Amino acid sequence: MSLLRHQAQKCLANQVTNKGLNAFITASSPDAVLRQVETASEANDSALRGRLIAVKDNICTTDLPTTCASGILRNFRSPFDATVVEKLRAAGAIVAGKTNLDEFGMGSHNVHSAFGAAYQVDAEGREVSAGGSSGGSAVAVATEQCWAALGTDTGGSVRLPAAYAGIVGFKPSYGLVSRWGVVAYANSLDTVGVLARDTAAAKQVFDAINAHDASDPTSLAPSTRSRIRAAIAARSAASNNGAGSVPLRIGVPTTYNIAELSPAVRRAWIKTLRQLRSLGHSLHAVSLPATPSALSAYYVLAPAEASSNLAKYDGVRYGTRAAGPDGDDSGVLFSATRGRGFGDEVRRRIVLGAYTLSSEAMDNYFIRAQRVRRLVQREFDAVFRAPNPLLAAAAPGQVQEDEGIDVLVCPTAPGLPPSLQALKETKPVDAYVNDVLTVPASLAGLPAVSVPVAVDGSKEQGATVGMQVIGQYGHDDLVLEVGGVVGEFKPEAA
Ligand code: GLN
Question: Residue ranges of the Amidase domain (predicted)?
């Protein structure tokens, strides 16, 4: 029996054992998977050949439904594959199934799913958060029900679940990976990301999907891609060493050292920085003062875009109609369909977004949030030593070549995964604070990876904390490379 077939069978067996964790909304049939492994093995010699890759259920596939974990799209089947799925299939990968998520990508713990929560079980047997919104993808990878998975990251939805599940979660620079066939949540922030057990696998998947796509108007043009590649090559030639082998200037954002940071996370951060320094890299404190406002700006902008995107689900053009006559004498044709078809969190976002876009609130919320977003982008550009390749000239306030930093290193989430029970006792909006460390890179469209770092404290023995590496736009490979180094770190002897 071939090795690939053996690995596929192992994943299929793990899907059965871990079914209770609810990682998949729809799994591919085992027979179909094994048949595809056989054909893929003969056809192709890419790194993804015969590999089982799970796909978040807001990414369209023709052979399986695409529900977005919602009631309204419960029966939706796409007539086409998303470009990313097409690319994976062309590389010989096999879609393992469609993974659970927070409805339409809105949430941080994968508890807002019309198909029930995806979750994990900790060392003490407690049911704990899988993170969200790509919680199903994270659980599927962590429990080896697949080799890797696709997720989407609008404000942290790949990085946060990866941090909670102890795996790698990579969000590429905005615009590198096609969003065609990916159900929109907030277009200006949405990215397709990768969840995997190590950075090498994440890079293999990323390489297969990182390409211009004419069907996606926000896909980065081939000419810009080559310009960025040339600039990076020139910089690394000038420093006469390959990236990663030169001592790097590591930025430590002091503004990310927030009061909510749990002691275990802070300890892991300090250890990571110490280990980076012991490898010869230098550490530099940087201040990104807009960080606290970034979260509020995100929670104005993302719901605003969402309320507009979700307007099409009305049971007429898209979506499952509610039974019985819709509308009433007061006149809204689809209020019952939309009222019943969306879950609480999605309804909250639609209402919030509709309000911030209304004429009375526009200036005070939406416009201000856009300003904060610009501020966040500028602050990042002011600390990186490489200029932002999307700006024609060096941004005002751009640092000197020898003063800037190469990457930022900071935690992914303020704490360890909460138990599902604890979540029931908190208000839904309390979950928003979990995104405080991931949202800034999303607002600026920067590449960021979360890698697991061991925590050696006695209480959390065996647990890991997600450590985030953020880079300048287009420096995705460097981010993955540094992430790979950080992910190798073992806990120091106590
Ligand atoms: N938790 C954030 C939200 O609910 C991020 C979600 C995401 O990245 N899709 O909006």
Answer: 16-480
